[in-house]
Amino acid sequence: MVDRQLRRRGISDERVLEAMSRVPRELFVPESMRELSYDDGALPIGFGQTISQPYIVGAIATLLELSGDERVLDVGTGSGYQAAVLAELASDVVTVERVPELVDCARAALAHTGYDRVEVRLGDGSLGVSERAPFDAVAVAAAAPSVPGALYEQLAEGGRLVVPRGSRLGQELVQVVKTEDGPVERASVPCRFVPLVGAGGFGRE
Ligand code: SAH
User: Into which CATH architecture does domain 2-191 fall?
Assistant: First the structure.
């Protein structure tokens, strides 16, 4: 996976590649899908949700520019896989999911794989987690029509927010850096995520 799907496609940050080679992806997918764990795509995890394609997880992790001692917010826990990758790259990870059953599954998978220092919360992640702010980096694993304002506000100065921005049908991964002069944006690869619902996303579903 690391060589064929990541390195060959231009993911070159060695820390990201190492992190992704350490996290056992098969332990974050439903048992019936285990043999597809390292396929080049997203996989269903139930409740209409998916575990993201490895390449996209690598792209998000790269754009967060983590060096090891950051506090990170991960919005859209899903399986917990991306939170585990982020835990390899930063010191403190808080992740938020709105589907209670997925929160339970992700907590179990993170505990089983030794990432129980990741804090998994149930709630509307589009509003962030104000009592744990500011964050050095925020990853959003669901599509938003625009950069969620609360998430930008909860960034530390110099902090990076990565979000798939666009319509429900297709988005572009965008890196937003918080600066003294306001947000500085950089567009990256095209992608397709499930929608971010909630106040800072596409609204209620
Ligand atoms: N990072 C995940 C991918 C999950 S897909 C992984 O590695 O497996 C996106 C997830 O975002 C879904 O589980 C969905 O339920 C969740 N989601 C969508 N809107 C949300 C919101 N407002 N707050 C929290 N989670 C949300």
Answer: 3-Layer(aba) Sandwich (3.40)
pLDDT digits (tens, 9 = 90+) for 133-188: 999 999 999 999 999 999 999 999 999 999 999 999 999 999 999 999 999 999 99
167 is a catalytic site residue: no
pLDDT tens digits, one per residue of 48-71: 999 999 999 999 999 999 999 999
- Give the C-alpha separation, 167 to 171, whole Å: 6
The values of phi and psi at residue 27, to 5°, are -85, 0
> Ligand 1 pocket: which residues have CB below 6 Å?
49-52, 75-76, 78-79, 81-82, 96-99, 102, 124-126, 141-142, 194, 196-198, 201
Ligand 1, atom 4: nearest CA belongs to which residue? 78
Per the CB < 8 A criterion, the answer to whether 1 and 17 are in contact is no
DSSP 8-state symbol, 114 = T
